[in-house]
Amino acid sequence: MSQTPQTRAERRATVAAMTEAGASTRRIADELGISKDTVRRDLDQMRAAATTPRQELQQRLRRRVALAHEAMSHLRQAVSQAVEARPGYCPLIDDETAAEWHAQLRDDAAALAALAETFRDYYPRLLQHPTPPSTETKG
Questions:
Q1: What HEC string does the chain produce?
Q2: d(CA 37, CA 32)
Q3: pLDDT number for residue 66
Q4: Residue 32 CB-density burial (10 A; 0-12 exposed, 13-18 middle, 19+ buried)
Q5: How many CB atoms are closer than 10 A to CB 116?
Q6: 35-58: per-residue pLDDT in tens?
Q7: First-residue to last-residue Cα distance in the chain
Q8: Angle (CA) 89 94 96, round 5°
Q9: In the prediction, which pLDDT does 82 show?
Q10: From residue 131, how far is each of 50, 70, 126, 135, 139 by CA, in Å?
Q11: Angle (CA) 22 26 29, round 5°
């Protein structure tokens, strides 16, 4: 029986090499002085981590879509709450706070308008307005 590698990464590399060479789970466990369950867990972990670049990209894009959905939901809630609160009609707000809120709303509105314009690059058909039917009569 050989000495157990010092780190998990070293052990997993040894398990991978021995598996590729055709060694059984039992033989790997015996040679490394670890349990068969540890060998199986190492192999499972390595298989789970062995994703292709395309799969990794798809996973990242799915996470990004999920974050975008969540952000849009939060944005809609925040806008609804701000509209309902009507901060421009709060007479007890001091001038400094009012000026700060006004500037913040204008900055946020500009950032959101710029964000909305990015849809033009990726979804041009969504932004095409249908041409209204002609009211001219042929005659």
A1: CCCCCCCHHHHHHHHHHHHHCCCCHHHHHHHHCCCHHHHHHHHHHHHHHCCCHHHHHHHHHHHHHHHHHHHHHHHHHHHHHHHHHCHHHCCCCCHHHHHHHHHHHHHHHHHHHHHHHHHHHHCHHHHCCCCCCCCCCCC
A2: 13
A3: 93
A4: buried
A5: 10
A6: 999 999 998 888 877 777 888 788
A7: 99
A8: 110
A9: 93
A10: 51, 34, 14, 12, 22
A11: 100
Tokens of 62: 């799915």
Q: What is the pLDDT of residues 66-99, one digit of tens each?
A: 999 999 999 999 999 999 999 989 889 999 999 9
pLDDT score at 69: 93
Q: What residues have CB less than 8 Å from 51, skipping those under 6 apart?
A: 59
